[in-house]
Amino acid sequence: MAWIYLAAAGILEIVWAYSMKQSEGFTKLVPSTITIVMMIGSFALLSVAMRTLPLGTAYTIWTGIGAVGAFLVGIIVLGEAVTVMRLAAAALIVSGLVMMKLSTSA
Questions:
Q1: Which regions in the chain score pLDDT beneath 70?
Q2: How crowded is the C-beta side of 4, counted as CA atoms within 13 Å?
Q3: What residue spans define the domains of the chain?
Q4: What is the pLDDT of residue 106?
Q5: TM spans, by residue (predicted)?
Q6: What sign does the dihedral 94-98-104-106 (CA atoms) show?
Q7: DSSP calls for 77-99
C-alpha cells in the first residue's frame, strides 16, 4: 500500500508543479489554490508512505516521479523543447528510480 501512496503523492506533485506554472508567480487565485492544495496532499501521502518505506527510497522516487512527470507535461502540454539531451536526462532519472525500487525490500 505504501507504494500506491507514494505513486499518488508523485502524481499530485506533477499537478502542483503544473498549476504553479499556471499561477504566474501566485498571482492567479485558482491555479495558486490548486497548487497549495495539491502540495498538501502530496506531502501528506508522502508522509504516509514513509511510515513503511525508507526515507531515501521514498523521497527519491517521489521527486523522480515529479521531475519526469513535470518534464513530460512541459513537452506535451506546454510545448517545451524535445532534445536528445533532455530525453537522455529523463531516461537516466527513470533508470535511477527503477534501481531504487529494485533495491528496496519494503
A1: 106
A2: 1
A3: 2-102
A4: 65
A5: 33-50, 57-78, 84-102
A6: positive
A7: TT-----HHHHHHHHHHHHHHHH
